[in-house]
Amino acid sequence: MRTVVDTILAEVFERCRDNRDGTLADYIPELAEVPPDTFSLCVATADGHVYEAGSSDVEFTIQSISKPLTYGLALADRGADAVAAKIDVEPSGEPFNEISLDPVTERPRNPMINAGAITAASLVAGEPADRFERIRRCYSAYAGRDLGIDHDVYASEARTGHRNRAIGHMLRSFGIITDDPEDAVDLYFRQCSITVTSRDLALMAATLANNGTNPLTGDCALAPEHVERVLSVMTSCGMYDAAGDWIARVGLPAKSGVGGGVMAVLPGQIGIAVHSPRLDAHGNSVRGVQACRELSKALELHFL
Ligand code: DON
């Protein structure tokens, strides 16, 4: 039966469909090859109803939407205090790939920019060879299905990711990372290359909305005591140097990725996902931002 949510989703999809603004993320060569006009919207409720519009079964790489998930895994593995000793929770107002540390604390400003995300990857427990599998299983628990990796995107980023290597070595030189920084950077490249659909992303968001438990499988992806911290940094830092405009106009904790995905969470209620690969100057999906603004307005989701 067609519901009011289906109707609103279809209307927002139609209104955003013709927006061809933005460009593909060509700094990772393989991402410049993805079909630019793929578009889908998906909403999943905290009790497991899924609403879809467009090509919601197309797989794409999760990219930076991985950051809150690995941060959550680091919190679970090391505890909140040990993680806070390495990564702050302050918005940086900087681009995602800024080579920077807070000048006073000498820590990455937050886990959503690359410096904090590479540090979070370094904090995942286990031998280097086992850590990626722990991350993949963790993300799969959020999505409720076994997720894979795009080996071509991984190889492309591993070949060209000199800026992230520079960040890794900066972290090592300041003692934030204490092991080989190449391991942490490689793990970060791999986690970014995990593939999802917008349906997966909506269920991941719904899992966060449902206090860390996937509403369809009942599996716990993140203990409730860590969900609050993850959603807090998504709120203040998830959209990078566009986080202020996002929270004013959409009003939801969110995370974007240069694969064109956006995931947003209304705690206790719903998860939203959009996939559209053309990006704005901040590295956020153009239609993803537009669709989330429109959905937030139409469904009255702004949490303030
Ligand atoms: O660090 C990178 O370059 C990527 N693998 C991920 C960046 C990203 O998705 C930024 N977000 N919009």
From TrEMBL:
Domain of life: Bacteria
Molecular function via GO: glutaminase activity
Residue numbers binding substrate: S64, N114, E157, N164, Y188, Y240, V258
Coiled coil regions in record: none
Keywords recorded for this protein, A-Z: Acetylation, Hydrolase
The family this protein is said to belong to: Belongs to the glutaminase family.
Subunit structure and binding partners: Homotetramer.
Name the UniProt record assigns to this protein: Glutaminase
UniProt organism field: Rhodococcus gannanensis
Entire protein: shown range: 1 to 304 of 610
